[in-house]
Amino acid sequence: MTVATSTIAVVGAGPGLGAAIARRFGTAGYSVALISRSSAKLDPIAAALREKGITAEVFPADVTDDVALTSALMAAAERLGRIAVLSYSPNATWDHTSGQLPDLAALGYTSAQDTTAQSARSQFEIGVAGALTAAQAVLPAMRAAQDGALLFTTGMSAIVPMAMLGNAGIALAGLRNWATAVRADLGKDGVYVGHVSIGVPIVPGAGDGDPDLIADRWYRLAQSRDTFETTIGF
């Protein structure tokens, strides 16, 4: 495969949906920049992509560290080519195959009644501040090219209040609010903004929750650019 001139940066990449999004765009000719805190988690994903002939590199960064995240995105653009697509979905993930509800507290979630300023702030840093930092890093080049796409993936609580995800809902709803508000202005600059909210477990082969199906839906939305928001499973 010829090395692509456009890059997709997958922020919050993991072995499930992040890897599927990277694979879908990579097979369409994009170079792939994988970003999350752990290079140990990212390296096997990058290796699997390369086996398919996809140009992929790893850029470890914590989304709550503005400097590190910006530096990772700048390095990705310098090494792989202009970031034409930003996929942002650094939400905590878990193994759904057991069919058991995960330990939400261990993942940093608090119920609505137990949500404090501190717990809400922690989710805001991941779900909103990180997204704004990433967007700020890639938007100048997108505007200059009059072409780009910001893809934000959230959970159901971005739209439907859920008592068990009190602090996460605040953050995800805030990200959705900003994306909704900014999309018209960015659209004038040739930048598409999209939001997909997922209300089902992300499990390979599990109908609407299959990560490859979700990734393909994202790819088609990024190409057609005719729909801002899509919900899955609710």
Offer a concise description of the structure:
This is Short subunit dehydrogenase. The protein is an alpha/beta fold and 234 residues long.
Keywords for this structure?
18% strand, 7 strands, single chain, seven-stranded parallel β-sheet, SDR_fam, globular, 234 residues, NAD(P)-bd_dom_sf, Short subunit dehydrogenase, Rossmann fold, alpha/beta
Explain the overall architecture:
The chain is built from six helices and seven strands, in the order E-H-E-H-E-H-E-H-E-H-E-H-E. The chain has 234 residues and is an alpha/beta fold. It has a single domain (6-232), classed as Rossmann fold (3-Layer(aba) Sandwich). A seven-stranded parallel sheet has the order 3-2-1-4-5-6-7, sandwiched between helices. Helix 4 (117-145) links the parallel strand 4 (82-88) and strand 5 (148-155). The mean pLDDT is 92.
> What is the C-alpha radius of gyration, as a whole number of Å?
17 Å
Indicate the mean pLDDT.
92
- Rounded to the nearest angstrom, the distance between the terminal CA atoms is 38 Å
Strand proportion, as a percent range, falls in 15-25%
Q: How many strands, what sense, and barrel or not for the largest sheet?
A: 7 strands, parallel
Q: How many discrete domains?
A: 1
Widest β-sheet, arrangement of strands: 3-2-1-4-5-6-7
Category by helix and strand content:
alpha/beta
Q: What is the name of the CATH topology?
A: Rossmann fold
Shape designation: globular
